[in-house]
Amino acid sequence: MALLQIAEPGQSSLPHQHRLAVGIDLGTTNSLVASVLSGESVTLPDHDGNHLLPSVVRYLDTGDVVVGAVARSFASADAHNTIVSVKRLMGRGIKDVAAFGEILPYQFEEDQGGMPFIKTVAGSKSPVEVSADILKVLVQRAEETLQGELVGAVITVPAYFDDAQRQATKDAATLANIKVLRLLSEPTAAAVAYGLDQKEDGVILVYDLGGGTFDVSVLHLNKGVFEVLATGGDSALGGDDFDRLVAEWLAEQANVITAMTAGLSRQLMELARSAKEQLTTADQAWVNLDIAGKEVPVTISKAQFNSLIEALVDKTVRACKRVVRDAGLSLDEVQDIVMVGGSTRVPLVRECVEKLFKRPLHADIDPDRVVAIGAAIQADVLAGNKPDSEMLLLDVLPLSLGLETMGGLVEKVIHRNTSIPVARAQEFTTYQDGQTAMAVHILQGERELVEDCRSLARFVLQGIPPMVAGAAKIRVTFQVDADGLLNVEAKELSTGVESSIQVKPSYGLSDTQIADMLKASYSFADGDKEKRLLREQIVDADRLVAALEQAIVVDGQALLSDDERALFESEMALLKTVCDTSDARAIELGVERLAKVSDDFASRRMDLNIQRALQGHSIKEIEEIS
Ligand code: ADP
Ligand code: MG
């Protein structure tokens, strides 16, 4: 798993010869191919003039493979052999896809690598093969239209796609015999289509509501460099859900809920979709239900439709707010809002988003083509047709990185969702007098305690000059480079002693693990805070007791009466027992008490030390003079 991926800048090549390259939007519902023709990026239609290729593949027992609208029409009649929404399965393990079992009607089987295969009449098919079959159709369409062989393609993926999902997409391209010039994130592609990359800098929110998924991304553009600041959304929300609500409503109107059959429900979904699409441009939509051979006409108004979908649209608006907050921004800092996905044609969707940001949206480019159009522009650059432009896409750190501090606590040095490359330094100090070494323990995760985070590496900084506790200054620098490699360096500032280690934080974590770690950090947040507080109090208590014990050894003889010594000892013993009670407040009070009773001793020590220092000073001066 590496959300820490970066795409390399464009490699330039021969500038004069126009090299054929395409942008491909490999979507969950629909896929498209686009190319730059005479300076303009356009999507390429099939023989019948359709630009959108439904991302549906049907396997026949003859070995034939049917892709697109025809395959889609068999989605329910031949469900086992007709693969829809294969994008959801890309790069997933068999355990992940088991969860889709309820939504997707396939029979899965596992290969040795734990990869899921779908059983069809034409044999078992991996998600990579199914995606390759979609890509082949698009590539063929492009080569026929452009009349030549392609040098490669830019294929878009959701911004949140992890390493395995990206790799699976690349594998599909290899299988389809197409060179991947780059995988580009979908929101970046959309921003490029609107030419937003030409701006000096800016903050862009991309709202992508497709058939079955909702993605929202916040991008930061700085001097031609795009960074994905944060992503969010809902992988189970899209236009299909609008259809479902309308279908239910239609069924109620026609009084057929009790007589529901599979065929009728399919018919209702199709009519609902048609009604929904009509309502994008009209105030009323008419549909004719065919119930047991009898025609039942139903009318639905735009107002009715809006009230059906209102709650879902509201959910997307709330997700926008959350992602903007995750990016560390306020709503008015978002300068451009780009609308992507067929479902953003729904007027209510546009109204609500516009109302949230209080500014006009970028919605002029066909929302289901905009991603492919942007990808083609990028492909044109990468193919070497525009050698001097280059665009860099940066990603974000999926989980926070931090260090273990006293008491088994984690101090976060770089927070999750920080874009990479990044470097952050933090200063630490020694805990004990005369401490000459410090253990550096690097952790990944969102929780407060070491045992709840993932240990990445440990090393020891040796050779710290002996000083009193708290006097040494150790700067620990975390640096994550563009390839996602973490380098941690610890340096004692007064002597320059240093030590470092390189770790790869993303290695070995699946995205489910990452999701689990994030989920745990939210659900345990309150308990974690309490635990942290308790540990901090215990650390304080230990520190005070240790310091006092040390002081008694050094200056007790000279400065303490027997009574005082006995008082300190009983108070220290009391504090130690309180520490075992897990009562943070009681420990805090105990610390305050001990600090108070030993306060006078501390100031007497201070006086004594000043006297000693002055004495030492004068002796040295005398020596120098003589
Ligand atoms: P994906 O990104 O998931 O492949 P798309 O961006 O192609 O999906 O969006 C498909 C969705 O857009 C479908 O739910 C479809 O019904 C919806 N859609 C397409 N045209 C319209 C329209 N005119 N009005 C409302 N919804 C539409
Ligand atoms: Mg899409």
TrEMBL record:
One of its GO terms (biological process) is iron-sulfur cluster assembly. GO terms for molecular function: ATP binding; ATP hydrolysis activity; ATP-dependent protein folding chaperone; unfolded protein binding. It comes from the Bacteria. InterPro entries: ATPase_NBD, Heat_shock_70_CS, HscA_NBD, HSP70_C_sf, HSP70_peptide-bd_sf, Hsp_70_fam, ISC_FeS_clus_asmbl_HscA. Keywords: ATP-binding, Chaperone, Nucleotide-binding. Belongs to the heat shock protein 70 family. HAMAP family: HscA. Chaperone involved in the maturation of iron-sulfur cluster-containing proteins. Has a low intrinsic ATPase activity which is markedly stimulated by HscB. This is Chaperone protein HscA homolog.
